[in-house]
Structures are given as C-alpha cells and as structure tokens.
From TrEMBL:
PANTHER family: ACRA/E-RELATED COMPONENT OF DRUG EFFLUX TRANSPORTER (PTHR30158)
Name of this protein: Toluene efflux pump periplasmic linker protein TtgA
Domain Multidrug resistance protein MdtA-like C-terminal permuted SH3: 325-384
Residue span, Multidrug resistance protein MdtA-like beta-barrel domain: 231-318
A Pfam family matched in the record: BSH_RND
Lineage: Bacteria, Pseudomonadati, Pseudomonadota, Betaproteobacteria, Burkholderiales
Main location as per UniProt: other
GO BP of this protein: response to antibiotic
Length: 431
C-alpha cells in the first residue's frame, strides 16, 4: 500500500472553519525519521575509537655511581670499667670504731676512711717492745762474756769449749734481738692498720660494715670500694667470625686498617648522645675467650668531669678504617626482591633497567654495594617504586655526583618531597 495516497481522518480544527478536516500521514512521519537518523548517528559514533590520554613519564631522582675511598666505623656494644677499682679491706681483726668519709663522695689519696679500735694493738706493741728490751739486755751480757773469755783462752786459762760456748751464746742473743725487733715492727704495723686510708683518688662506694661491727681480715674484711674515674676504660668484644671476616676483606683489598692499628673510638650513651671525648685502643687480649669465643678489646677515655661511671652500657664506634674504591648508594634506592636485592639503572635513553646487586654493610643512611654496579652508571634514588622496565623516565633532580647542574623548573614540585634527602652522596663518608 502506498502511504502517500492514504489519508487518515484526524479531528483538527482549522483556523477558519469549525468543521473537522483530514491531514496527510507524511507529515506525521517526520518526527519518526528524525529520531531514526539520530540513532544511526549515535551507532556510527560508537564504532570510532576514542583517543586515550598518554600516561606521563615517572618522575625520579638519580645519582651517578662514583667509587671512592670511604671511611668506615665498626660499632660494638661495650661497658665502662674503672681503670683502678680498689677494695678497701680490714687487714687486722677487731672492732670498727667509726667511718670517717661520706658515702659516695670523692676521696683523695691517703684520706682516712675507717678507724678501728687501736687499744689491743697498742698493748701488743708495748709487749713487743718489752721483749725486745729483754733480748737486748741478754745480748749485752753475752757479748761481755765473750769479751772476757777470749783473752783467757788465749792464755790457756780456759778451754776451747768455753770459747765456743761464749761465741754461741753471743750469736743466739743477737738473733733473739733481731726476732724481738721484728715483733715490734709487726705490732707497729698492725697498729697502723687500725687507721684505714684510701690508696687512690676516686669515687667511694657505700660502707659494707657499720660502726661497732667486729670485722675479720679473712671473712668480713671488705669495708667499701673506691673507683678511679679518670681515665675510664671501655671494654668490648669482637667475635671470631667478625675477626675472620675483617681478615678476608683486608686480604681481598676491600678493607684497610690504619697504620699501627691507631683507631679512634667514640661513645654513644644510652640516651643517644655522643660522649665529648674520643678514646684510643690501648689493649687487646692475645687469646680468645674459651667461654664466649670472643676477643676482648679495651679503649681508654679521659673522664675529667666524671661523666662516665663504671658499669655503664654504651656503644663503641671504632673509626679509622677505610674501604678503598667503595660504592655507596642511599638505602632507599635499594629494593628487596623475592630472591635478592635490586635497583634501577638508567641508560642513555633515560629508561630504567632492573639490576641485581650484592649489598654489604650499612653506612649511616647509605648501603655499600659490593657487586652489581660499575663506575659512571646512573641509578634511581627516589621514585624507584614507580619505575617499570624499558619505560622512559623523567629525571627531575640529580643528586650530588651526577653533575647535571640546576634542576628543571617544572621539576620543583616533584623534587620537593626529597629536598631533605638531596645531599646524600653516592659515596658519602660515615656520619
């Protein structure tokens, strides 16, 4: 059926007629055709591929690998010890009269610390002196008798036996005088031991015996302890494995000790502060401990202000060694893989390539790289987590060692997050 010839009666009222008239259906098909054309246009548009925005290159900071001689420090757990720790003991038995020092105070050499009851020892001294006087008198008699016997024997008025007896009696009397004089010296010495003095200048401990106590030299003779604070010793131990490792590194040329083992030692206290004075190693035990398998080393420090006290636990940092031609990279540049450590190396086209490396010890905020890097290569420091293999990178900042001059103006925002870490060098010295 031809739609153009078909008419449909519609109730349309004309402007000039009140009667209903008919309208062609072609006029009614125009809105339908318009909707169909719009739908076809939409379907055609959906068939075209929209252009996706290109991803921007990851922004990274890089540094150039530059081997150089790097000072290193070895850190050990250590403990302070008084260079002279003297126990003050009673050397005779008796009653303790009184303590004459203030516990915990600084005592001088020769200062009296304790007094014992001297009366028994004074009496013993008098007895010894009396015995000495008796022996001296007997000696005088024996000597006079010998003087009389000798000329009589020469005149054959007395026998040879009488002369021998006189000579023997005189010798015995002389020996008795010597023994009596020894008893007097012993009594005087014991009397002097009742006054107990400090043999050195140092810090005193608490009194272990109170006034009025009976002390004996063999059992309860310990009275107190005096610690010399200047200089102060610091003891630490090196394990056998560490000693062998250092020896192998020295043989391979990866480590060099100072001449004559002239190390410098610094201390880190319990609160993290660094002790103001530096020390030197003055003793190393020639043998390993059979109990711990460690090698004892001792350093000596000046302690003029008594800041160090015996028994403190500290960290000893031993400096003076050098790692020749060492390669250092910031720790944040090294990533941990499933089997090994790796980092990203940037080629001449500014593309990143993953490189497996062998890491050594930490040095401050840096890490020694023992294998896997060559001098002159560039490695990614900041932004390494955003790098993919073969993808071009946008270098926004070159850390010291790269020598690239000022950073681009557009990179300031990307570099602001690493501004505080920018001075890290590829081979910085130890802090």
């Amino acid at each position: 059926m031809n739609t153009a010839s078909v008419t449909r009666a519609l109730p349309i009222r004309g402007p000039r007629s009140s009667r209903w008239r008919t309208l062609p259906s072609s006029l009614l098909a125009l809105p339908l055709l318009t909707a169909l054309l719009a739908l076809l246009t939409l379907v055609a548009g959906c068939g075209k591929k929209e252009a996706l925005p290109q991803a921007s290159a990851p922004e990274v900071t890089v540094m150039t690998v530059t081997p150089r001689d790097t000072p290193v420090e070895f850190e050990f757990t250590a403990q302070t010890e008084s260079s002279r720790e003297v126990q003050i003991r009673a050397r005779v038995d008796g009653f303790l009269d009184r303590r004459t020092y203030v516990e915990g105070s600084l005592v001088k050499t020769g200062q009296t610390m304790f007094l014992m009851d001297p009366k028994p020892f004074e009496a013993a001294l008098q007895t010894a002196k009396g015995q000495l006087a008796q022996q001296q008198a007997r000696y005088q008699v024996a000597k006079a008798n010998l003087a009389r016997v000798q000329p009589l024997v020469a005149q054959n008025a007395l026998s040879k036996k009488d002369l021998d007896d006189a000579v023997g009696n005189e010798a015995q009397a002389a020996a008795a005088v010597i023994a009596a004089r020894g008893e007097v010296d012993t009594a005087q010495l014991n009397l002097s031991y009742t006054t107990i003095k400090s043999p050195l200048t140092g810090l005193s401990s608490f009194a272990r015996q109170q006034d009025g106590s009976y002390v004996t030299a063999t059992q309860s003779g310990l009275l107190t302890t005096v610690y010399q604070l200047n200089p102060m010793w610091v003891n630490f131990s090196i394990s056998e494995n560490e000693m062998l490792k250092y020896r192998d590194q020295i043989a391979a040329g990866h480590l060099r000790f100072p001449a004559n083992n002239d190390f410098s030692v610094s201390l880190v206290l319990a609160d993290g502060s660094t002790y103001s004075e530096h020390g030197t190693i003055d003793f190393a035990n020639p043998a390993f401990s059979t109990e711990t398998g460690t090698f004892l080393v001792r350093a000596v420090f000046d302690n003029p202000k008594a800041a160090l006290r015996p028994g403190q636990f500290v960290r000893a940092r031993v400096g003076g060694a050098i790692r020749p031609n060492a390669i250092l990279v910031p720790q944040r540049a090294v990533l941990q893989g499933s089997k090994s450590h790796f980092l990203w190396v940037v080629d001449n086209e500014s593309k990143g390539h993953q490189r497996v490396v062998e890491v050594g010890e930490w040095q401050g905020d840096d890490w020694f790289i023992t294998d896997g890097l060559k001098p002159g290569e560039r490695v990614v420091v900041d932004g390494a987590i955003r790098v993919s293999a073969g993808v071009p990178l946008k270098i926004v900042q070159r850390l010291p060692g790269e020598g690239g001059g000022a950073q681009p103006a557009g990179a300031q925002a990307g570099a602001s997050a690493t501004a505080s870490a920018a001075p890290v060098s590829g081979a910085s010295a130890s802090e």
